[in-house]
Amino acid sequence: MDSNHERQRKPADESRNLIDSLQNEIALDIVSRLPISSLIQFRFVCQTWNMLTHDSRLVDLHLSRALKINPCIIFKTYHPQKDQLFFVELSDHDDDERTLREIQIPFSTSMAIFQIVGSCKGLLCLSGVYDHQAVYIYNPFTTEHKKLLHCNHAVEVNEVVYGFGFHPATNEYKVIKIGYYPHVYYATWSPGNTHVYDLPRSEAHVFSLGSNSWRNLGELPYKLHHSPGIFVSGRLHWVTRFNWHLDRLIVSFDLSNDTFQQVPRPDFNVNLFHCSYHLASLRGCLCACLLTSNGDNLEIWIMEEYNKKESWVKQFNIGASTIVGQDLSPQSYDIWRTSLQKGTVKVVCILKNGDILLDCQGEILIAYSIHEKILKIISISGMPKYCQAVAHVGSLNWIANPT
């Protein structure tokens, strides 16, 4: 009798488990479509929902979907006593209201003035401006963070260049830190002054989040521009500075094997002593963004096949004469023109609709429509003046167990 009852109950239990599993899969699919700000609020509803947001399947599914839509834009404001972070979510509709919201920084008391090193798969890397030993990996939405161990240099560094990225082959997040020593500024082009006091001009270290340790890579024979490394094809990229290399090279750092190498740059056919260019990533391709010497044009070159010099193509030419949309006020247009002339326009990212997002002097965001060939203002309620704009994919990614 009991055995018959057990046999009858077993199929019922299996059916119930199947239904529960199916319901869980449906819930994961639905919840993974929420924007990150809603997803963070979702976990405070009840304990069950909070546990769901810690499910690695949801983390992966939400991240995979977030990578296909418009990123969040994170703004870092400049303040004499304490820097702040804000964010805005960009929808697919131009007429949707965009409201700036503050991001809490749980370690702000220990690192009040900082810079954004980079954004990768939902995590930010921040470093101290005055304290070169202060480096944090941080999820700005879950507020989970990790302070990296101190990195030992031969002597006190004068300047530091950072990079932050993730390599899928090794499944590791890494931070690259290049410290330059004070004597590099004294006649660095003279062989006699290359190694003053028998010290190297620089020292590169790499930190792996997996091993939780720094590794000394030795001297780097390049003076890199003080800007965040651009992450493309498993590598970080910088432009060299004039005092070591007069031809402004592109240098990459391979996150899979921790090596530096040169990447061929476009043939701009201009004197780079009178022009400036910066790097960006658009749809997974490395881009070189040239600001011409006359202050009239921003040329965007795209490397269609990575590490192939012949694949560089001048894809866009955004100039002072570009058609201006009706929503761009005379004041915003003046900021755009001034930013173009001073060489302070930065390419932030490309949006889902194909518009290229431009940061103009940290004052306004402008979208260049590649289809209509016009400039449009990105109106954001409460946007602070003078800030750094960074494209960021909002994610539940946990630092303790990054995907």
TrEMBL record:
SUPFAM superfamilies, per the entry: F-box domain, Galactose oxidase, central domain
InterPro entries recorded: F-box-assoc_dom_typ3 (IPR013187), F-box-assoc_interact_dom (IPR017451), F-box-like_dom_sf (IPR036047), F-box_dom (IPR001810), Gal_Oxase/kelch_b-propeller (IPR011043), SCF_F-box_component (IPR050796)
Residue stretches making up the F-box associated beta-propeller type domain: 81-384
Pfam family, one: FBA_3
Domain F-box: start-end pairs: 20-58
PANTHER family named among the record's database cross-references: BNACNNG10540D PROTEIN (PTHR31672), F-BOX PROTEIN CPR30-LIKE (PTHR31672:SF13)
Name listed for the protein in its UniProt record: F-box protein At3g07870-like
The gene coding this protein: LOC107769827
